[in-house]
Amino acid sequence: MKQDSTLGEGLHNFVDEATIREEMARFENPEPGRIREILAKAREKQGLDPEEAAALLRNKDRDLDEAIFETAMHIKKAIYGNRLVVFAPLYITNECKNRCAYCGFKASNKELDRRTLTSEEIKREVEVLEDLGHKRLLLVYGEHPKLGADWIAQTVRDVYAVTSAKSGEIRRVNINCAPLDVEGFRKLHEVGIGTYQCFHESYHRPTYEKLHVSGPKRDFLWRLHAMHRAQEAGIDDVGMGALFGLYDPVFEVLGLLHHAKQLERDWGVGPHTISFPRLEPALNADIAYNPPYPTTDHEFKKIVAVLRLAVPYTGLILTTRENSEFRRELIEVGVSQLSGGSRTYPGAYSDPEYDRPDVQQFCVGDSRSLDEVIRSIAGDHGYVPSWCTACYRLGRTGEHFMELAKTGFIQKFCLPNGLLTFKEYLEDYASPETKAIGEALIRKEVDNFPDPDRKHLLTDRLARMEAGERDLYL
Ligand code: SAM
Ligand code: SF4
């Protein structure tokens, strides 16, 4: 029998439809004065209640929408500075027993070549990713009974084992896989995963049950309680998400916020990250071509901005589902992590045979190489790309991380550490053009660094990096 959390008996559907409807109804047509009050509260970095988030999302006044974006930019700058964490997804298997109406990997898609990477193939993929400069990977899995927690744990070990004198190593492996029981999560914790990530897709239960046609994923509550079980197993960085396009986006944002609140109540810490994939066309997934609730770019940007205000200390993740132009706008209003140079088919980094749009899980909107993405982050935005993993490796995770984040720690540690990883990237992996842009940005950041003691530590380590040392952090 599946083992739910020990909290299981007390756990329920904490994302209650009637409560969310009530919160949505309360601000059918929000007063401008009320919107300004909510934005003033958000500026205090105290987060927002679900009904306040609903009011911002339901606002129709374009000028006030601009004020929402401006406040989100302010919070983003105040908490995260100009740093952006970079990662790549690594698809390990596309074998799947579920029939999610929107996904190209669904069991009923007979046209898809199914592939599960062997240890040797994982090694080849990781070598390519390391040679590009990646240090943080998100491993992605379909759900299949023959591929359980022990096997997933082994794939994590396989990834961490790939190191080379030339290109270093992967320093943080995050996981996006189907929910496990507590024992299963414990196995992942033991092999040193960073964040456990799982998207609830739709918090609206009737929609969820309609779109998950068959397979274990049909069990709404098993998935809803996954983060609780992960916490119980010792994984204190958990990542949530909803798939936008399946149901009313306001409902989904409120679902995410209720989920986050329940985690805070039960574990003292909310989600480490939130993702907001938007439905993309996928092979033989009709619904993905005709989303029941298409989300416009403006609505989507507002979702990102409102999440930034509602959960200011939670990382917001943007994937290559969105195109490069729009990614720029979303970064400004709150995104703190993004993927680059992604492939969404197992084996596609090392084997060009699988690097074709027709076999990917969904269509990638930003197909630039990692080097191009980094050049644009640094050159066009003046943002510092970061591969930093210092907190995780020093045990600053979960509740501990959140407490630190609230005391300005991100600026004190994350920015210098981000600069050090950027320097490492420029030394070892960047094209000459990217290197020139990056070095100029590092010089500017060092010149403007406010704390003289830390500036000294930073310049010392940057010089040591140039002399050949690696993996230095504060
Ligand atoms: N099988 C695991 C699961 O479903 O939780 C994890 C892997 S699944 C490939 C990762 C995520 O991809 C899903 O949670 C879903 O949100 C997203 N996804 C699936 N189909 C998509 C599509 N057509 N467009 C955008 N995202 C999609
Ligand atoms: Fe399988 Fe996940 Fe795709 Fe659903 S979303 S079909 S569970 S891979």
Explain this structure.
With 474 residues, the protein is an alpha/beta fold. It contains 20 helices and 11 strands. The chain has helices at 17-26, 32-43, 50-58, 62-80, 119-132, 149-161, 182-190, 205-211, 220-224, 226-232, 249-267, 286-289, 297-310, 324-332, 370-379, 390-393, 398-405, 409-428, 432-447, 452-466; strands at residues 83-93, 136-141, 163-164, 168-169, 172-176, 196-197, 238-241, 273-275, 315-318, 337-339, 384-386. Strand 9, helix 14 and strand 10 (337-339) form a beta-alpha-beta unit. Helix 6 runs parallel beside helix 7, helix 11 (249-267) runs parallel beside helix 13 (297-310) and helix 18 runs antiparallel to helix 19. The mean pLDDT is 91. It binds S-adenosylmethionine (SAM) and iron/sulfur cluster. Iron/sulfur cluster binds next to loops.
